[in-house]
Every structure is written in structure tokens, then in C-alpha cells.
Amino acid sequence: MRHPDHPTTPSAADVLGPYLREQAACFLRGLRLHREAPADGGTHGAEEATAALRHAARRISGTLRTFRTALDPAWADHLRTELVWLSGTLARERAYADRLGRLLEALHQLSGTSLPAARTSSPPPGDGDRERAALGIGAARAGALLERRLTLARTRAHSEALQALGSSRFHGVADAVALLASEVPLAPCAAAPATEVLYAPAGLAEQRVHTAVASLPADEAVEPYDEARDAPWHRTRVLLRLHRYAHEVVRPAADPALAGAGHALDLHRDAAEAASAASAAARTPRIAPATAYALGVLHAHQRHEVGAARAVFRETWPYAAAVTAP
What we know:
This is CHAD domain-containing protein. InterPro entries: CHAD_dom (IPR007899), CHAD_dom_sf (IPR038186). It comes from Streptomyces halstedii. Residues 9-322 form the CHAD domain. It contains 11 helices and no strands. It is mostly helical and 326 residues long. The protein has one domain (12-316): CHAD domain. The longest helix has 38 residues, at 73-110. The chain is globular, with a radius of gyration of 23 Å.
């Protein structure tokens, strides 16, 4: 019997194996719930099951990426590629639905409040009341146009998700995750202490976030409508998520200090993608000027939301020195 005052240092296998098996079990529970849910993918049960599948797939794939050296590399690379494909496919339907809801709510609010200046369209001549009246006319048409476009995109994404879940490719993924739930293909080095094998990759994941945050351009240096400058922020969001997953493995618990920053980056992504959707709708041929004006105002509003999310991130990022680094 091991003396309680001299505990044995856990190996990397002792730490990494249970985490991956737990996430595999979550994936399989989500799969079971999805199979038991009604065929209508819009039901609450089906949405919960899809979310469970997506979340588990992301955690497994992120863990395989960060701790690849402690695993069978060929197996880890293949399964990670398949899980990234699956989580991306399952995420699109919900993303389109959320984007539509966000844009319609923004149109509703803007039609009765003071307006930001549209970037690509000039408002009708007159004072603020006339501008609001013009927006009120265009908002209904803009909302209908967005609803047609995004509902069509959501329907296509739903069909793609159903096809993916019924494909041989998905069955291969499910079989691989089912095996993972009982046996994790580990590298020989996983027999060494976790502090020697897992802490360095986890630290590297954290350092990558710090580097990404430090390289973000200062707010005053960014043109608010320059969507090409969104990419570093999106990359930072992905790196932060990988860091959070790695933290869960080695601690094991979520880091509450990163919750606010992660939420701000999610809002940033949502606002940026909503702005792109409004801009794309404004390029629809032969739309009425009032509709184009409403979409221009909506695009401007969402770009303001992008800037607001960036400000919230900088306020909530727990490592202030990294934000202000040159």
C-alpha cells in the first residue's frame, strides 16, 4: 500500500487518458441523444445533442493537437482532422440561425433609435427623423432579404449536417471515438510523469495565446470597417480555446479568469460575421435604395459591435501586460 505522505507522481497516461475517455463518453452520450431525438432537427432535444457532439469533438481534437507528442501521432492527426470536419459541419446550422436572430434584433432596435452612419450608402437628405423613417421603410425589406438568404443557408447547413451524420465518414469517426472511450493510443513517453510530458505542451499553448494577444493592433491603429484586420482576432479566439482545453487537462478545471475574455472573443466573431452577412446582402442586385441604406446602417452597427467586443476583451484579459506590449 502506498503511504499517503508520499504519493506517487501521476504519469502523463494517468492524466491524459481519463480526460480523453471522459470526452469520448460525452461524445457518445450526445450521439445516443441525437439518435433518440425526433427526426425534426429543430427540436430542443436534437439541438442539445448536436451541441454535445460538437463540444466533445472540439475538446478531443484540441487535446489531440496540443498533446500530440504524448499520443500515437498518426492516429491523433487522423482523428483530429475528422473531428474538426465534424464539429465545423455541425456548427454551421446554429451559426446561421444565431446570425439571423442577431441581425433582425439589431434592425428592430436601429429603426427606433439614433443611427450610426452607413459606410457604403448615403442616407436620404433631411434630419434624423427622416433618416429613421427611411430606415423604417428599408428595415422591413432588409429583414426579409436577410431572412431569405440566411434561412436558405441554414436549410442547406441542416441538410449537410444530416448527410454528414449518416455518412460512412461519420460512422468511422464514431467508431474511433468509441474505441477511445476504452483505450487511448499513447506514445511510450506517456509513462513518464505528467509534469515532464504534459506541462511543456500546455505551457506552449498558453504562450501562443500571449503572443497572439500581444501582436493584436492597437485600437487606434485599426480602421473599424477593415474586415481584413479581423483575422488576428479570430486566430486569438482559437488559440485561447486550445489553451482553455489544455488547462482542463493539466489542472484539471476550467480557468475562470479566462471566461470573460473568451466570451468577448465569441461576441467579436459573431458581430464580425453578422457584419459580413449584412454587407453581402447589400450587394444583392437591383435592391431598393432604402433597403441598401438599411443594410449599410446595419453593417455599420455590427462593426461598432466588433469594436465594443475588442474593448471588452482588453478589459477582461487577465494579463494586461500582454495587451499593451509593443
